[in-house]
Write a structure and sequence with these properties.
295 residues; alpha+beta; four-stranded antiparallel beta sheet; Knr4/Smi1-like domain-containing protein
Length: 295
């Protein structure tokens, strides 16, 4: 396995743990769910790769196109990540909303539903077997039946769910040998687009930098300066050289918890807020919220 990929994965989970502690200790954050799963075995990864290659071959036959020249293999970064944790779930919401029950780590894999829409942070990266055969999604559409999905599969790729972070928006992964790219879904999986270059590492680093903000990942990765950032992302996807990614993320907005809470409330949280509940919050918390969301 690539040394760079292994070092990145280990660094990522170390920084992830620190982000979870920051959320848990934040005065305006109520419920934090964090599920790190047992790492995938080499056998489990190989089984998923074989399943994906089988699906690719079937798609090629159905579309009368050339089958992939080599069996499918996940890239080194994905393998390194999944060997540490076979999937990942983080979700949280602020004290603007009443306390919720904790998600059972031993239960069904947590895919965001419509009644989770108010939550500011959510990520549900599917386990490795879920990338090969979608699990746990209960949405209105099917990404493989969209124009982008049909185009990718006709071209020899497998187009499948990747992150179930919202009931209306989601992210899919385009699986072909090389660097696997990410596409952004909207309208209950009815439409997909690639508004900018994005791969696994970029997506995961962006999610971490914004404390898994749902709003910041809906339909695209939100960057303050698209004209500068988008060409840089394209270079990273082509070369898998992420040395400049940290700088791009530091220069972005919504990379602190207060900002993510304010953005979530402005965009849709205000639709779900319970004013009677808000009035019962401690005075110090109410003052913090009033200063943050302007009410």
């Amino acid at each position: 396995m690539s040394t760079k990929a292994q070092e990145w994965a280990e660094s990522y989970f170390s920084r992830l743990e620190k982000a979870i502690v920051a959320l848990q200790n934040h005065d305006l954050v109520s419920r934090v769910n964090f599920i790190k799963y047992p790492g995938a075995t080499g056998e489990e990864i190989a089984e998923a790769e074989a399943k994906i290659y089988e699906e690719q071959a079937d798609n090629s036959e159905n579309n009368e196109t050339d089958a992939p020249e080599e069996p499918f293999a996940f890239n080194a970064y994905i393998k390194a990540f999944y060997k540490i944790s076979n999937g990942l779930h983080v979700s949280w919401h602020s004290v603007i909303f009443p306390e919720t029950e904790a998600i059972d780590p031993g239960g069904k894999f947590p895919i965001a539903k419509d009644d989770d829409d108010y939550k500011e942070g959510w990520i549900s990266i599917l386990p490795i077997e879920g990338l090969a055969d979608s699990i746990g999604f209960d949405l209105y559409g099917d990404p493989q039946e969209t124009s982008l999905g049909e185009s990718e599969e006709a071209d020899g790729a497998l187009f499948n769910y990747f992150d179930g972070f919202n009931y209306y928006n989601d992210a899919c992964i385009i699986l072909r040998n090389g660097n696997h790219s990410i596409a952004f879904g909207t309208d209950h999986s009815a439409s997909y687009d690639e508004p900018h270059a994005c791969d696994f590492v970029i997506y995961m680093e962006y999610a971490l930098s914004t404390f898994f903000s749902v709003e910041c990942r809906s339909e695209e990765l939100y960057f303050s300066d698209r004209n500068t950032v988008h060409p840089e992302l394209e270079k990273m996807v082509e070369t898998q050289d992420y040395s400049n990614l940290e700088t791009l993320l530091k220069n972005n907005r919504h990379t602190d918890i207060d900002s993510v809470i304010a953005l979530g409330y402005e965009e849709k949280g205000n639709q779900y807020a319970d004013e009677d509940y808000r009035e019962e919050l401690p005075e110090a918390i109410s003052e913090r919220l009033n200063a943050l969301i302007g009410e």
